[in-house]
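Researcher: Going back to the complex we discussed earlier. I've cleaned up the inputs and rechecked each line, so this should be the final set. Can you rerun the prediction on the complete assembly and write out the structure?
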Amino acid sequence: MTLDPAYLEYPKRREGMDHGLYPAAPMPSRRPVAWPGGKPVAVTLLVNLEWFPITPSDTPFRAPGHMVTPYPDYRHYTAREYGTRVGFYRLLDAFAKAGVKATVAVNSAIAERYPSVIADILSAGHEIIAHSTDMNGTIAGGMDEAEERALIVEARDRLAEVAGTAPRGWQSIARSQSFNTPRLLVEAGFDYMCDWVNDDLPYLATTEAGTIVSVPFNHELSDRQMIAVQQQSMDSVAQQIEDALAWLKAESAQYGAGRVLPFTLTPYITGLPYRMDAFEALLGRLAGDEATWFATAGELVDSWRPQAGG
Amino acid sequence: MREGEKDPGLYDFRPYRDRPKLEWPDGKTVAVWVSPNLEFYEIDPPANPQRKSWTRPHPDVVSYGHRDYANRIGHWRMAEVMEKHGFKGSVSLSVALCQHHPDVVANANALGWEFFSHGIYNTRYSYGMDEAQERAIIEDSIRTVREATGQTIKGWLAPALTHTPRTMDLIAEYGMTYTCDLYHDDQPGPVHVKQGRLVSMPYSIEVNDHYGFFVYNMSPREYADTLIRQYDRLAAEGAASGTVMCIPLHSYLIGQPHRIGPFEEVLRHIAADGRAWITRSGDIADHFLATGYDAAVADAARYAKA
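Model: Rerun complete. Updated structure for the full complex:
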């Protein structure tokens, strides 16, 4: 048995990354950042507001949370709709009660189908970013470039039409990109993307068409990962988020540098009756902590960019 | 190993009873070593015929980015906590990290951490390699670590735990003294190799942070509690037997902000307990070769079939 000799050749074995999207940047090399009001920790809430067609297309892949049973999967179709009709409104109320702003990544199908939801998000002062067309609008490596460009532009335009302004930010379904995605997002006028999970702080990514800010929304700090994947309770989630906050506060004090605590929410996961009390209590404690600055993705980028020289 | 046979013949059977006791320095009962995996995963690696690297089409943004978190954020956070409590790492190293992120490697070296090889990249697997190819990655590992750190590697943890039937014989032939790839015991023991003396170093799959978080789906506090229970049990038993506890880590997991705090409590517990010889894998191997290896061979002979 022998392997192709190329398997033992390493053409990208050199200092730095094995791609050109962003440079290596170990934490100790970073210039410290400060958040408005001298707050140590920016808390960034991101809600995925999604519409799942009952006819999954599976191209290039089936999104997490999508249909499971043979057609027609009433169970999952309606349980996801529950998230939009009921769960999301619980989240909006919880945000209002705690007095915090969030970022909502919205499928453009939500805007087209339920424009009142968009109005309710905007009137509460939350930020809307683009999140593909619907949950059949997945992106992955190998996808045809023209098709991907059309998907991004369609999501942007249909959302803008209802929201009144073009979204500045983008998050891919399942944070899944192709090698072309960052460049296509720059070409479509996006300021930042929320797919990469390799950092605690925003950083600048470079494409052939220009730069785009990468705003990390750690997938580990999400109700999908903690509750749907790892089968943990909302009480445990709350404990973990508060442990993270305590750590980041201490680190911020030690290094005199701002930190970010992201938390990604899914209406049909967190917005269930038996999880909401624990979630609201957590949100109340986070909002009541003097160390926190609740920032939308756009506010975070706008604060970070001049400090980073980006 | 005995290639193709039902029993690969890696070691002799020795039950965990009536063994000659392993004596650790200063009367400690359990040798504790922490093993950060300092890794580099390629965004677009070539395919190995027997194992896919990423589960999704390249670029697998979340999986790649998650692992890249280690070198940007996680390592620095983890290393600081380990140093604060007096734990030197024994590094399972993707040796190409010496090229990609020399600052991470230099930081670990400056902290007095030991390096052993975990292959070139954690996205290049040994499956299907011929002998010359496997020798090439071993020689590359020895040369690369020596040039980057001045250290001569003493041990091996196969890249992504991918082996060939020749691996144990080859690493022993190149002078390595321990393997972290065998999980049959809580004490070091002799491994059968064609030449040299090779020790199986207890590394743990079960309390590996990856298993804790993604196989057993533990919360950070549950994982910390698991490590403390593992330690307390091994420290107690070690009074009679002399045990080894390894804490295998990946800083993209343990170095996350929601996990590092509970983990720090584990290090605090072990450091304060007093029964632990807090050390490095190579030091355990050296000590065992000098004081326990021959007795273990003699012990095994008691169970050998006539």
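Model: Worth noting: Residues 74-98 of chain A form the longest helix (25 residues).
Researcher: Good, that matches what I expected from the previous run.
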